[in-house]
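To the team - NAP complex, inputs and output below.
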Amino acid sequence: MRQVNIGLLGCGTVGQGFVRLIERERERIRVRDGVDLRVRRILVRDIQKERTGIDRSLLTTNAIEVIDDCDLLVELIGGVHSAGAYVRRALRDGRDVVTANKALLAESGRELFAAASASGARIGFEASVCGGIPIIRAIERGLAGDSIESLTGILNGTCNYILTRMEERGLDFATALRLAQDRGFAEADSTLDVTGMDALQKLQILAELAFGSSHVRTKVHGIDDISRQEIEQARSRRCVVRHVATARRLPGGAELRVERRELPESHPLASVRDENNAVIIRAKAVGEMLFVGKGAGSLPTAAAVLSDVIEISRAEARVYTGENLT
Ligand SMILES: NC(=O)c1ccc[n+]([C@@H]2O[C@H](COP(=O)([O-])OP(=O)(O)OC[C@H]3O[C@@H](n4cnc5c(N)ncnc54)[C@H](OP(=O)(O)O)[C@@H]3O)[C@@H](O)[C@H]2O)c1
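Output:
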C-alpha cells in the first residue's frame, strides 16, 4: 500500500468538498487503487473561519510548509499570482500537481507543463474545464486513437443559468444575473462569465488538447447585451438561445468561437438547462459524442480533482481482471 501525503492549497468550496470526498472514499480507493491518500496540511488565509467537518489542526497560513512537506500538491486557491508561484515551486522540485485553476492554465499552461516535463512531475487538471464531467480524460486518453474535428459546448454554467431563467421566467438579464448570484452560481464580479472570457479560456484548454495547434483564430461575444425580446423571438420560432463555444480544426490551425446561438428545441444543447455544462465532440472515426453534467459545485468539482489525484498516485495502471464478473 502506497501512502501519498497531499498538500492542499485552499479550503473553500472545492477544497472542503475534496477533503470530505477523500474521507468518504478513502477505504474504497485503498482497496481498488492500492493507495492511501492523506491530506497532510491545508493552506488558507484565515484559520479562524468556520469550516464544518475540517480538522483545524491541519490548517496553516504557511504555504512553504504545505508545499515542501507533501508528495503531491492540490491547488484550489484560484487566481494566477500566488497560485502560480506555489505551483511553480512544487513543479521545480519534481512534485506532482493537481489543479482546478483554468485561469492559471490559460495564462501560463505552456510554461507550467514545460517545468513539469523538466523535473519529471505531472500535472492533473481535469477539474479546470466542465467541473465533474471527465472531458479532459475523454479527449486526452479515450479519443487518443481518433482525430477530433470539432468541439461544441456549453462551458459556462453561470451564462446557461441566466439564459434558462430568462427563458422560463421571462426575466431580464440583470434580474437573472442577480438570481444567479443569490443562488451562488455567479461570482460577485461576473465579468469573466458574462463576457464569454471564461468560456473562451476553457475552450482554449480543450482545443489545445484536441488539436494542439498554435495558429488559432478567436471570436468572443458574451451574453451581457441580451434582451428579453431576443429570447422571446427565438421561442416564437420554437428555438432557444444558448451561449455556445465552438472549436473547429482548420488546415494548419483552429478556429475558436464563443457566441450566442439560436438552436432548435430538438438540438442536444437546447435541453441543457440551469448551471449544467455539455460538450459535443465530433471525431473522424467515432462520429458524434455528447457529454453532459454538472460543470461546477463543491462535490462534482472535487470528484474530478480526486480522480486526477488517484490516477497520478497509482504506482501502476490498474489491470482489469474481470474477477467480479461471475
Ligand atoms: N467553485 C466551483 O464550482 C469551481 C468549479 C471548477 C473550478 N473551480 C476552480 O477551483 C478553484 C477554487 O475555487 P473555489 O470556488 O473553491 O474558491 P473559494 O471558495 O474562493 O476558496 C478559495 C480558498 O483558497 C484560500 N485562498 C485564496 N487565496 C489564498 C492565498 N493567497 N493564500 C492562502 N489561501 C488562499 C481561501 O482561504 P480562506 O478560506 O481562508 O479565505 C479559500 O479557502 C479556482 O481555481 C476555481 O476556478 C471552482
